[in-house]
Amino acid sequence: MLDGAETRTLLSVRNLSVMAGDRTILDGISFDLQPRRILSVIGESGSGKTVLARTLASWLSPPLRVSGGTVLFQGRDLLADPTHARSLSGREIAYVGGNPAGALDPTMTVGAQLVEKLRAVRPDIPAAKARDKAIQLLKAVRIPAAERRFNEYPFQYSGGMMQRAMIVDALISDPALLIADNITQPLDVTVAAQILKLMRDLNAEFSTAILFICSSLPVACDASDEVMVLHKGRVVERQTPAALIASPQHGYTYALIAELPTLWQGGPDRRRRVPATERPIMSVRGVSKAYETRGKSGKALVQAVRNADFDVFAGDNFGIVGESGCGKSSLMRLLTGLERPDGGRILFKGEDVGTASRKRLRELRREFQLVLQDPYGSLPPQSAIGAILEEPLKIHRIGTRAERRDRARAVMSEVGLHPGLYESLPTGLSAGQRQRLNVARAMILEPDLLIMDETLSALDQTEQGKLLDLFERLQARHGFTYIFISHDLTMVRQVCSRIAVMYLGEAVEVAPNDRLFFDPGHPYTRGLLSAAPTLEPRRYRPEDCLLEGEPPSPIDLPPGCAFASRCPHAFDRCRAENPALLSRGGQALAACFLNEPHEATHV
Amino acid sequence: MFILRFLARRLFQGAIIVFLVSALIFTLLRVVPGDPVRLMAGGMAPEALIEQIAADMGLRDPIWQQFGRYIGGVVQGDLGQSFVRPANGAAVGGASFDDTTRSERAEVLALIADTAPMTLQLALLAMVFALVIAVPVGVWGGLHPGGWPDRMALYLSSLFVSLPNFWLGIVLALILSVKLQLMPAIGYKGFAYTILPALVLAIEIAPFLIRTLTVSVAGVMGQTFIDIARVRGLTRNQIVFRHALKNSSIPLLNLIGVQFSMLLGGVLVIEFIFDYPGLGLLTINAVMQRDFPLIQGIAIVTAAAFVLINIIVDLVATTIDPRLEY
């Protein structure tokens, strides 16, 4: 029996250690993987997950080097025989990375590259057969119109489709082991959920063992048969998902589960207890914006924002959520007056931002400020931190030099940056510190409204929590109003009192926090909730709500409801007529015909 | 469909460019000092005759009228006649005012048609030589950024770029033609006469090509799809020759377009040194003789060539990289 078990083990890693220079990255990793099993590897950034993936894929580059251990694949040691390992890569051991966008040659069609790869590792397969197999697999990963897509270029694929194509690329040679390194990370939640479902289906169909590397515990638990936790280069535990959540063995896992934000159950909660005032500080009234691009047949209009309509109350936390391409960032540019709307009005304290003169707009900007997503690109690398902070004051001609310096130091200590950093460059700051600096720069003018455009997206769980605490303190002290623009449902669940859900440029639902999560009025919101990564028992099951396909292009919008093409409940009227945002009582609005009382249909 | 729309748009833009160039050259030539009629008729011709010739040729009309007449001819393919060159090609300039050959002045189009192929031949050969030098050196350097092939590419480029072309031309003529007697140097009596000037031009162009290639190959080799291609199971040769080279060829192609246009427009010094009967030599003589129609004709033809080369380059670039379809 023991012999049988030995031969059945596909991958057997023993005491694997990897060093970078004299720093230990992986420290005595040992585990086994049976055929057809899915094993998740989870850990925070820097725990060695990706190095493990690359070691197994024979893809280590200096200064990383294996300093000990064995990696037995189908009984042969890959580390002892690099030539053998090399011959396996792409054939028996396939790898899919987290950056599908740059993974294929932009100058060749996807199909040609799939065929090229298959024939590189399996020269015995004739080209025509390789082509048939690629198309068959593209169909299996549910790429629509696979024959046509086969002849398209990578830039014609969306992120989600490209990741499917990369999965095809990995599976096309019928590998025994698939290493999936953070494959869902860059994708939107609904698309990521589709990819995970797809991966499990393929696992059952093609009997490939999968090593699923991931930084999100809910995703890892969702995806796999077993979860292995890496911490500081060591395996600290390995259990089935259910057992891991029920009784984590290691302190790190325990903390990870404890600080995981929740959607429906109690958890960290930073929502405003005091009911917000009903006095709007910013009102968005029927705002729309279209951009002109060159389409296939000459010029085309991209309708980035369509008829957005909501109020933000003073002292409130307002959330705007939606997936990439839904018009969040275009809306942000309109709200801050960086661009002017084509139609509708944006009122800030009763004054129209969309039509204000440049001079007036600059004065208004003292009162509303923007904090951006990218902690690295948003700070000038050659200015000292003090100078960065004082610049807004200089622009608005506020205070003397000494006053400005005192103000900068005060703000620094308020956001938790050591005032000793005043003279230093932002180069050495971590992502979290950089976002603190960005917040400090925005609040130095003492604005009333802060617009946070994905401000926390680049930060890890712990750092996000710290910054949210900071925002709460600042709000209590200065009475800020926040608009959080985000794709992250768990984040807005924690902090916002009212949330707008955007889909293809429209606000399809605007509702108070609890109402949105417990009684959503739009099928898209339900779809988002069903796909959100969480360990909780779901209120909305993916089987009922998960959206098939991807959003249509904002260039050729179909008539009727933009969501009809993905909606499980769509009926004829949805394809002919676009529902308006209507009240469902108690400040909740949704744009869906299903909410209409039947007698009011023709009002 | 895309190709037709693209061509229509670009050719229309090109026509405007050529028109503007000819208007500019035409105006500038007529405001610079020096009366071409005096040169044509000869120093001894009486003032009245000169005025008469000038009036006959329309040279005393307002500039816009002259230009209108000229451009009307250009549209019909008539670039006018040279002021000074006789059709039989015997003598240059009017030695005396009653020279009978004066009435049979050479057609500008014919003059250009005789010399342009020579320059085209020179430019093509120079480009071939330059690519033969630059591609291996540049690609090799780009595949080993920071390594010795990269440094060698840099040193070779620095050396080439710092050699003055007139000096190099003379030295090479001295070594290859006079000492070793490998090839002819001066004048033109056959294809062999093109080799030496082309070599000098190639050495002048090669550094730019080498630099562009090293930078773009190194850039492409650092991209994700190259990095990941190895894990996907592609061989090193497939990665380099099918993917890296194709992707790094776009900047090279653009540079080749620009360099080739410059070669066609004026290899003045080289053609002059080697007495090579191309457009460059024709230009030098036309300028020295104030042969306005010829200068204008050359300017229009080179501008048109520039436009066409750019259209071809962009067209080839879009077939290499479909993202460039604009």
TrEMBL record, chain A:
Keywords: ATP-binding, Nucleotide-binding, Transport. Signal peptide: none annotated. Residues 11-257, 282-529 form the ABC transporter domain. It is found in: Cell inner membrane. It is a peripheral membrane protein. The keyword Oxidoreductase does not apply. The keyword Transit peptide does not apply. One of its GO terms (molecular function) is ATP hydrolysis activity. Its main location: membrane. GO terms for biological process: peptide transport; transmembrane transport. One of its GO terms (cellular component) is plasma membrane. It comes from the Bacteria. This is Dipeptide ABC transporter ATP-binding protein. It comes from Paracoccus lichenicola. The lineage of its organism: Bacteria, Pseudomonadati, Pseudomonadota, Alphaproteobacteria, Rhodobacterales.
Automatic annotation (TrEMBL), chain B:
The chain crosses the membrane at residues 12-32, 122-143, 155-178, 190-209, 252-274, 294-317. It is found in: Cell membrane. The keyword Transport applies. Signal peptide: none annotated. InterPro entries: BPD_transp_1_N (IPR045621), MetI-like (IPR000515), MetI-like_sf (IPR035906). GO terms for cellular component: plasma membrane. GO terms for biological process: transmembrane transport. It holds the Pfam family BPD_transp_1_N. Keywords: Cell membrane, Membrane, Transmembrane, Transmembrane helix, Transport. Gene3D superfamilies: MetI-like. PROSITE patterns: ABC_TM1. Residues 116-317 form the ABC transmembrane type-1 domain. It is a multi-pass membrane protein. PANTHER family: DIPEPTIDE TRANSPORT SYSTEM PERMEASE PROTEIN DPPB-RELATED. Belongs to the binding-protein-dependent transport system permease family. This is ABC transporter permease subunit. The lineage of its organism: Bacteria, Pseudomonadati, Pseudomonadota, Alphaproteobacteria, Rhodobacterales.
